[in-house]
Design a protein that fits this description.
Number of strands: 7
Number of helices: 5
Helix content: 40-55%
Structural class: alpha+beta
Strand order of the largest sheet: 2-1-7-6-5-3-4
Low-confidence stretches: none
Shape: rod-shaped
Radius of gyration: 30 Å
Order of helices and strands: HEEHHEEHEEEH
Distance between the termini: 100 Å
Amino acid sequence: MAAIEATQVWVTGGAAAAGLAAILWALRVTRGERRASSDWQARARRVETALSSSEAVFSSYPGVVIVWEPDAAADPTGGWGDPKLYGSPLALSSIFQFGDASDRQSPAARILDGLADLEARKIGGEDSTLRHELGPLRQAGMPFSLLILGRGGRFIEADGRVAGGAVVLWLMDSGIKGLEESNLR
């Protein structure tokens, strides 16, 4: 009987040792993957922090910023696509007034519909429209600066640029700009 018990102890001990060896081997093999996963999680946190910082910068601009991501910049249908909209609450409420007549769901599309065909002047004094300038910007990256003549004598400064592959439209209401400057005095 003692021999059977000793055999059972040896078999059980051997199985436990084999199980422990398998666990240690698995930990050793997956150490690289766990480290890589940890590195990617840290990198994702850094990217999210940088992104939220960028959005905070856009939101602090005293105007409105409309951004088309690189993959959506050139819309072959000629529509506005699905741009992102940033800006201070004061600027957004001011610029939104131009989109009152639009029935679009997207706030950015409503603003663009309202401003697209208003009379505008390029820096050199040539007549143009926002719609006319946005096409070459979104398709070929041609920058522009316009002064849009709005309702009630309001002027909207519009600057279109390509930044890091994204197409960016900066809009500044002259009334808001004057208000911001008067608060600085």
